[in-house]
């Protein structure tokens, strides 16, 4: 008998256990577990989902291994510059005034006209934000000086100077045209850009780390810097908009030398720092619900997900075929053994002693009811059960992890169907009148209303409808100019191009993508000037390239997820605008293509080696943190795009996503499994009865782990939800709502002329200056003669 997917083990009764030889009981337990887990004995992955990996790991991912020699070059540039002013002391031995004085000298050095001198000073500054590691003896000391130097440089105004230099490099047409003409681009083509982006990334990454030991002055600097990054202070736009511009310029082919990994990492960390991570999102959501007068959230989703345990993955097709063969052999042998039961189970002397058959006989499968043949006859001859130590047992959950939710629309549909069934009339959106309905229906409505959940999005949609209905009497909408709103306003004009560019890079970095001549080259900041000549160098470069692609996937998945979640909280139509352009740019099949690989191999990939400095990080776990993080992010994006969208759910069905997603369940990590099960749940009713019948273990896991929507018939199909797939109609209706929202809130120049005030004063209308074209002025006399003097005018009628 199968029990819901938490433990995934099978129930073995005492009678079956008593029939086992003592020596094979442990073997039986192992085989039993092997079958129930689909021949996957891997333990649960000790992975804790967070905004970022550990600080040291995030710092090391900024660099490629081919950049290793540049660390000593940065140190050399700093020491040469430092020794011209201070001869007898190290940087770590100076006091604060001398530190500030040298930081100001470095800032002045960034403003010189000679490019070589500027680059040398920039390398010296990079060595400072790397923690002046040459003078430190431990990793903790390096991190201390990183933090100190970063705040010192930020206070001196270095970041603004770096943004100006970055703008100069972006607009450097000579470098762009040179890179376009080159057949092969290498690290040397992006040296200036890489140094600037390295400094900016390290500053943002260091400052966003909240250290309780920070001085009060540093806390003020940190909050000021956060506000400046998110506001249009740099080049009249948030820093993220400038970086998005770099991404689109790179994808258009006009700047193939841009170091895209560093740009994407800086873009991700600047969005994360200015808008906030997942903990901040939860806090903002709670405050918004309080402000709108909505009841509090039924549970903290972050805490619930972290407390969940992974389910055993379902068996693969080959495992199921093997189990069926074993089952057939067992049933055949059971019939033969039945003749010998009268001899009280004495061993047949003519039977061949094959240990493999014993093993097969002792093995079990996912359906222990079928395995137990002729139970009545067995009860007569089985010896009493032998006491034994308890083996792995299924731990039943005390309750489901999520509180059920019901939408207002669900209650309306339930009442409409009940009224039409019992009374024969409907009342539209009335959810209070229950006259004429039987008592059980009253109880059902009471239960539904107890679990009714009103989302922030529903309130926002209702308010937007009111603004559209009453544009004059509705009043002015108060828009809170938070960092999310400023970012949306900045990227609104070219958001479709930004989404296409990010997905192009994601496609190029996906491990399932094949090299094509027309695809973009994302390896400009990893390939060395001289290609490897030995096998060892080639292997190292291969590891570097794979790691480079993994980091790009990690950054893009985090950027898209953060933007979707923040836009959804700020206004639902901002989220829908971005989501719709992702769908139009084929994001759904792209993510499915990404998962159409051996996902266990991807998650356990070891494309890392020691790199020093910065502080070395070596992942000794059984999985790669960044790859598992990327997979969860992509699954969450797919959930965001398809939730409550029938046409997009049907896209999952049409693209045959079920077997791809089911393979992803082999990763024993609770959070990843949760989002896979959510995606399977929304399409279950369209996959057919046979699929549900042969995937009962997956259905059990969905029931146990995914939130229940009361009245949601996800486990079977009916006529209501088997409606035709009209993709265009749904998307066009949504697009019309989005365009009306964007036009009303942001398009102030092209307002509706019907709603503009009318000037009824004759003097002011006649007093307006009208600029006439030159040809009219030249022929003015002719016009007067033809239109005025030659036509009779009844002045009395005109004035009346």
TrEMBL record:
Composition bias, Acidic residues: 355-369
Domain of life per record: Eukaryota
Region Disordered, annotated ranges: 1-43, 309-396
Subcellular location: Cytoplasm
GO biological process: cytoskeleton organization
Presence of the UniProt keyword Cytoplasm in the record: yes
First and last residue of the signal peptide: none
Function summary: Plays a role in the regulation of cell morphology and cytoskeletal organization. Required in the cortical actin filament dynamics and cell shape. Part of the striatin-interacting phosphatase and kinase (STRIPAK) complexes. STRIPAK complexes have critical roles in protein (de)phosphorylation and are regulators of multiple signaling pathways including Hippo, MAPK, nuclear receptor and cytoskeleton remodeling. Different types of STRIPAK complexes are involved in a variety of biological processes such as cell growth, differentiation, apoptosis, metabolism and immune regulation.
Protein name: Striatin interacting protein 1
Organism of derivation: Hippocampus comes (Tiger tail seahorse)
Record lineage: Eukaryota, Metazoa, Chordata, Craniata, Vertebrata
């Amino acid at each position: 008998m199968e029990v819901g997917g938490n433990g995934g083990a099978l129930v073995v009764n005492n009678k079956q256990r008593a029939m086992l030889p003592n020596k094979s009981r442990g073997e039986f337990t192992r085989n039993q577990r092997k079958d129930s887990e689909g021949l996957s004995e891997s333990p649960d992955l000790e992975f804790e989902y967070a905004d970022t990996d550990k600080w040291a790991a995030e710092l090391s991912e900024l660099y490629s291994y081919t950049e290793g020699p540049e660390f000593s070059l940065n140190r050399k540039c700093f020491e040469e510059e430092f020794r011209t002013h201070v001869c007898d002391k190290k940087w770590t031995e100076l006091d604060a005034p001398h530190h500030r004085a040298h930081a100001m000298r470095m800032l002045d050095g960034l403003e010189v006209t000679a490019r070589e001198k500027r680059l040398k000073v920039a390398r010296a500054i990079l060595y400072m934000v790397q923690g002046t590691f040459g003078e430190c003896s431990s990793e903790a000391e390096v991190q201390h000086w990183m933090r100190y130097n970063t705040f010192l440089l930020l206070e001196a105004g270095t970041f603004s100077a770096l943004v100006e230099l970055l703008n100069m490099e972006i607009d450097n047409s000579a470098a762009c045209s040179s890179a376009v003409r080159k057949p092969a681009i290498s690290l040397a083509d992006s040296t200036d850009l890489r140094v600037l982006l390295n400094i900016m990334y390290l500053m943002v990454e260091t400052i966003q780390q909240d250290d309780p030991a920070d001085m009060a002055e540093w806390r003020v600097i940190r909050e000021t810097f956060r506000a400046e990054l998110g506001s249009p202070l740099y080049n009249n736009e948030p820093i993220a908009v400038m970086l998005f511009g770099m991404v689109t310029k790179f994808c258009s082919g006009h700047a193939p030398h841009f170091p895209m990994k560093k740009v994407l990492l800086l873009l991700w960390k600047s969005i994360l720092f200015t808008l906030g991570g997942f903990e901040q999102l939860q806090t903002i959501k709670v405050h918004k619900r309080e402000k709108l007068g909505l009841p509090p959230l039924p549970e903290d989703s972050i805490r619930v997900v972290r407390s969940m345990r992974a389910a055993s993955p379902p068996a693969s097709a080959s495992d199921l075929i093997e189990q069926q063969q074993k089952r057939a052999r067992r049933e055949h042998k059971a019939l033969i053994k039945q003749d010998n039961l009268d001899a009280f189970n004495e061993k047949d002397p003519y039977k061949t002693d094959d240990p493999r058959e014993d093993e097969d006989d002792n093995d079990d499968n996912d359906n222990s009811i079928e395995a137990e043949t002729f139970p009545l006859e067995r009860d007569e001859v089985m010896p009493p059960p032998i006491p034994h130590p308890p083996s792995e047992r299924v731990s039943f959950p005390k309750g489901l992890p999520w509180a059920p939710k019901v939408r207002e629309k669900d209650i309306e549909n339930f009442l409409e169907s009940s009224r039409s069934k019992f009374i024969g009339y409907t009342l539209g959106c009335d959810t209070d009148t229950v006259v004429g309905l039987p008592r059980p229906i009253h109880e059902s409505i009471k239960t539904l209303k107890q679990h009714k959940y009103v989302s922030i999005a529903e309130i926002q949609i209702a308010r937007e409808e009111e603004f559209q209905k009453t544009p004059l009497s509705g009043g002015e909408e108060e828009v809170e100019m938070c960092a999310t709103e400023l970012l949306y306003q900045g990227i609104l004009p070219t958001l479709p191009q930004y989404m296409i560019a990010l997905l192009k890079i994601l496609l190029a970095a996906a491990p399932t993508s094949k090299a094509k001549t027309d695809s973009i080259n994302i390896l400009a900041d990893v390939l060395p000037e001289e290609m490897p000549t030995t096998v060892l160098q080639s292997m190292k470069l291969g590891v570097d390239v794979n790691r480079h692609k993994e980091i790009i996937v990690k950054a893009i998945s985090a950027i898209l997820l953060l933007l979707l979640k923040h836009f959804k909280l700020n206004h639902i139509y901002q989220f829908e605008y971005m989501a719709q352009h992702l769908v139009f740019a084929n994001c759904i099949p792209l993510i499915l293509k990404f998962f159409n690989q051996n996902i266990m191999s991807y998650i356990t990939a070891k494309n890392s080696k020691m790199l020093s400095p910065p502080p070395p990080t070596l992942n000794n776990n059984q999985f790669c943190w960044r790859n598992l993080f990327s997979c969860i992010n992509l699954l969450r994006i797919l959930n965001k795009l398809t939730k409550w969208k029938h046409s997009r759910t049907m896209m999952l069905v049409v693209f045959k996503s079920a077997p791809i997603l089911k393979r992803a369940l082999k990763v024993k990590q609770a959070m990843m499994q949760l989002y896979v099960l959510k995606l399977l749940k929304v399409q279950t009713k369209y996959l057919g009865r046979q699929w549900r019948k042969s995937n009962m273990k997956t259905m059990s896991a969905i029931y146990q782990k995914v939130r229940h929507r009361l009245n949601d018939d996800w486990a079977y199909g009916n006529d209501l939800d088997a409606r035709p797939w009209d993709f265009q109609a749904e998307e066009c209706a949504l697009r019309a709502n989005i365009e009306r929202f964007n036009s009303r809130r942001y398009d102030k120049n092209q307002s509706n002329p019907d709603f503009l005030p009318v000037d009824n004063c004759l003097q002011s209308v006649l007093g307006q200056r009208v600029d006439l074209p030159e040809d009219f002025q030249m022929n003015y006399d002719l016009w007067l003669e033809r239109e005025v003097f030659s036509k009779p005018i009844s002045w009395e009628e005109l004035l009346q």
